[in-house]
Amino acid sequence: MSDPGFNFDQKEAVFSTPWFRLMKIPHQDGRDFYALESEDAVAALTRSIDGRFLLVRQYRPAMATYTLEMPAGGVDLNETPAQAILREVAEETGYQAPEAVYLGQFFLDSSRLSKKVTLFFCDQAVQVGEPETGIELVLWTKEELEAQIVENRFDEAVGIAAHFMAQAKGLY
């Protein structure tokens, strides 16, 4: 492939927050390209010991509404992605899973975001506490989850990807 013409050695942050950085990447033709950089994340399709899937409803200011999504979050210092998702599942749902099975990794939006999400399947989760403040726990059977996806009422891309990846790997 030919040289795409970007001057990555001149890449600079033009705006920065604790959650993301807006990066300017100059192109050799004089145009600038802008991208959002943020820390990578983990997410899990989580099934309880009674076979229901754990979803979290929480308010997302970027969407100006409540969303329904899988437990997810960042990876802390000195933590593996698998350890991070087990912690996030417990914090967000009040459930503890015995293990996190790796499903895969993908980019959320490769045209503007550098963020990658590592997906896991957590099975046999048991309730050990309550969901995090500000989060409503929603439990769906496999049939309910699939119906919500087909009817476009569950529209979180990460959750849909995890569902199909887990099925393709024969995990349920």
How much helical structure, as a percent, in the residues?
10-25%
CATH-derived topology of the largest domain: Nucleoside Triphosphate Pyrophosphohydrolase
Number of helices: 3
- What is the annotated CATH architecture of the largest domain? Alpha-Beta Complex
Sheet of most strands: 8 strands, mixed
Overall mean pLDDT score? 96
What is the CATH class name of the largest domain? Alpha Beta
Strand portion? 35-45%
CATH H-level superfamily of the largest domain: Nucleoside Triphosphate Pyrophosphohydrolase
Low-confidence stretches: none
Give the H and E element order: EEEEEEEHEEEEHH
Form type: elongated
- Rounded to an integer, what's the Rg over CA atoms? 18 Å
Number of strands: 11
Q: Total domains, how many?
A: 2
